[in-house]
Amino acid sequence: MKEFVISEAKTESAILVGLITNRQSEEKTNEYLDELEFLADTAGAVTVKRFTQRMDGPSSVTYIGKGKLEEIRDFIKQEEDNDREIGMVIFDDELTAKQIRNIEAELKVKILDRTSLILDIFAMRAQTAEAKTQVEIAQYRYMLPRLQRLWTHLERQAGGSGGGGGKGSVGLRGPGETQLEMDRRIILQRLSLLKQRLIEIEKQKTTQRKNRGRLIRVALVGYTNVGKSTIMNLLSKSQVFAENKLFATLDTTVRKVVIDNLPFLLADTVGFIRKLPTDLVDSFKSTLDEVREADLLVHVVDISHPDFEDQIKVVDRTLADLGCSDVPQMIIFNKVDAYTWIPKEEDDLTPIQKENIPLEELKKTWMAKLNDNCLFISATQKQNIDELRDTLYKKVRELHVQKYPYNDFLYNIEE
Questions:
Q1: pLDDT per residue over 226-239, tens digit each?
Q2: What does pTM read for this prediction?
């Protein structure tokens, strides 16, 4: 079947396209494009140029206006004339089959949207049978409404055009079936098989969770690339894969951690992201069962990211969608060593912006807001890790005593 996403991690040149609308300011669009560029880099593409356009909303025909599309086409041709081939154009929103078809006809290069790019990264990162199955389900769900774009021979009949004097070949006269209908039927059959396989995998995972004994479950949650896996490695002394890429961790990893006299289970989960495709959220709900069944959620935040407050809101919304709003939660602000701020000049009377706030002031603000239910650490530099361990010990012990009052795991140690 014809490819609809990047099939392997190889360096290609990419152009990014975003819209500035009444609901999305230029600043917000640039933030989204920064993230889209990081996604492209993770998938193996190098961004060479960005295009933005002010519109009331996306065009139903080509997403952007005709003039902007011609501007992108001219840039691609200019690059080709200079022996710099543009491999793809990536749009920051999900495109319809009609939009993709029309844009491809004009630009003559591979067209991706944010969803297909994320799907490609997930396919590249998936390691276990469960993750691979979930990604494949999401890919087929994405592909179904876009089948018409994936083939150039869609109206070719597999059968004849009927017995009433049709032009079908000998032995093939009948109602017939278009290639599109065949593909749709094959994909639906495959989806049914994959969903059944996922149910079987989930039964095994449920059995595994039941066999873990009476231990408190702690789940690390947060935006992608905030340092969850690094914290996991510090606390569990394991070697969970961690790197400065989006979605470095896709499969949920669970480790037993012991602090002093207290054992508990610590889970490292897939990171969240803005505009996360609905199909992916649905497909990965079984992976996120570790989040739903957790007794304590540790929300990790990259405080050095200029848009960390929006990232907190994205994670909170996703947790609410998963039905986890009532689970006890604490926030860890990670990467304090990478935090930067710009002091304001004494004669500058303009309002203070978020980039003008020093770290100490930010700490006081959040500690007051969260009633001290937060910590500030650097996992890579191992700053405040002892305080993190002490805080986790106190919170987990309190939950343990409440949930398992007669459990003999705990034994007295001198305070």
A1: 999 889 888 887 65
A2: 0.76
